[in-house]
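Sequence in, structure out. First:
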Amino acid sequence: MAEDAELDVFRQAVNCAAVLERMVGGWKLDARESTRSALKYRRGAGEIIIVNHDGRGWWDATGSAKGDVFNLVQHLDPSLNFGQVRRLLRGFVGIAPIYAEAIREHKPVRADRTPALRWTERKRLTTGDPAWSYLATCRGLPASILTQASRQDAVRVGAYGSAWFAHRWQGSVTQVEIRSPNFKGSLRGGRKTLFQFGEAADGFARLVVSEGSIDALSVAAIERVRGDTIYVATGGGMGPGTLAALRETLALLHTANGVLVSAADANAAGDRYAMRHAGLAGAAGVAFERLRPPEGSDWNDVLVNGRGA
């Protein structure tokens, strides 16, 4: 078989999901957040790869890497040369991934049960309620921050003692993240944009970008809520809605000669996010800074451990 013909066979007959599942350990299908056209695989904290195009394509949700199955193998093991990748792929021809039974059909969200409507049905955050107690006790957030978050309607009380965090854009709730001592997720049917905290108004000159909403509040607490700063969180990977919201915000920041500060976690995934933040800042003509917590931690760890006092 000619080399070019063999490469075409690999691209058509080798499923990226099968390679991801078997080539290296730890990658698991997130069935709840997958669709038939986009399978979401996770490994560890913050590593996400989406398999699309019926298994013939993929992209890294935490970076810029993407491509076909050949690119995937080199992404998973950069030490492999062209010939080594080809020999490895020969063993994957015709191998099916094992995701089939893991995929669950998602029932369409009723139009009258959108995250925005469900948000209005929840109580505002109040001293002593279960969400307040969780955020104050387990997450170390001071009462002053929680009071401001309640006043800005950034956090509400969810079911089973959870805290709900609103992603808002142009005044509307677009998505709701959920956190509790034993649950991490989000409401179905929404569109991630940005969790936002702070009221810089006319003094806006600094945008601090964190991965999680609790981290955004933690940085705000550590900095005692700087008056020139808006603290935002992307909720992890940055999809189209998040990128659009960031770009619009950066346009305002450019006008103010401001700075984007990446407060992503201190790990490999966080550093990749920071690189993407730097790229967005550069494209918008905005200055960039990296606010990195101690190795292997996030800003809530810093707050809880008292290192940011």
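Second:
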Amino acid sequence: MLDIALIRRDPDRVRDSARRRGQDPAFVDRVLELDAAYRRALTAAEALKAEKNGLTGAISRAADRAAAARELRPRIAALDARIDEAVGEPPAIEAQMNAILSDVPNVLDAGVPTGSSSDDNVVARAWGEPRAFDFAPKPHWELGEALGIIDFERAVKLSGARFSILKGAGARLQRALAHFFLDRAARNGYAELAVPYLVSGGTMWSTGQLSKFADAMFADPSVDLFLIPTAEVPLTAYHRDEILDGDVLPLQYCAHTACFRKEAGAAGKDTRGLIRQHQFEKVELVWLTTAERSFDDLDRLTGHAEGLLRELGLPHRTMLLCSGDVGFNAAKTFDLEVWLPSDGGGYREISSCSNCTDFQARRSSIRFRREAKAKPELVHTLNGSGLAVGRTLLAVLENYQRADGGIDIPDALIPFTGFGRIGADGLALTS
């Protein structure tokens, strides 16, 4: 949620950010009107309380208190009624203001390029050369089904479209990738958490998932529980409603979880394969840090995700997202896109790394003190995929496929798989 003090102090910056996101900035004027009304209402309520206190004091100071009470108590009673009405006005106005602000995205960082769609994203850097095949490469869904390591048909029988079952070497490869990602996260200073897959509506709201994205979530409203769309939610909210000691910052957390999304806005997109599933696995990286270092920490987090792709030998590029493509919570985002030879070759997103500044922390009330008696400040929150397991698995299958239909395993992954190749018959082979 945006800081009302920022809107008061620099409304033009907020308007400009909204315009660059392709949104109507009229909400700024409405919020400022409500803010002025809120402060007037507070002042009016305090004036009535002061008037009552003055009358009460006059009674206590009077020579004839009984006579003063008979004269002034009717006025005090009338003031009480007005005070009861007046004190209810600021919260009502504040609720209107917060309802507007709840649906307003974060203010963009000045370094975010202006654009309307992913076509306007900017290549920040690239690594690796796409492989030149001496045979016609196959897409991962054909490879997986031919090897017998991915079963889409039975997954549809069990659950419907956008589900898959990994078998044998495929399931082992998925587990190895998650283990590899967590091992590298530990090396980079992340503390691993095993978190719930079900969280409350309050937790979802506090991390910016509600109400904007309610239709994208799987939920049971009868018990106020949502299946997490990403481990970002429980990891970010882990310190909700806490004041931290500044000496512990930055905090780095990671978690390997299943993620659940309706993909309601993806009708007709990526209907084949593992790209866009209702259930998928991901290792998430989250930072809680300070304002002055959060953008440097975003570069560090992004570098951790890039390092995984480099170790796996997967060509990729890092995209700085334009204003129209940055997500609701984020002020700045880098997407990592891995090269895939299928469909003529191209890059597909495999990680998204964002600085959410104090946007989520304000909703979650996550603060810190630089010193014992210092005023609490909001932390800055960062998050990124390190990495999406299913998309990395398909990238390995497609980039490391052999002419005979088998798959070579990247060297860095062999200690985690226990095998170096998937044979053309789908069996895991040590050599």
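Remark: Residues 118-429 form a domain with the BirA Bifunctional Protein; domain 2 fold (CATH 3.30.930.10).
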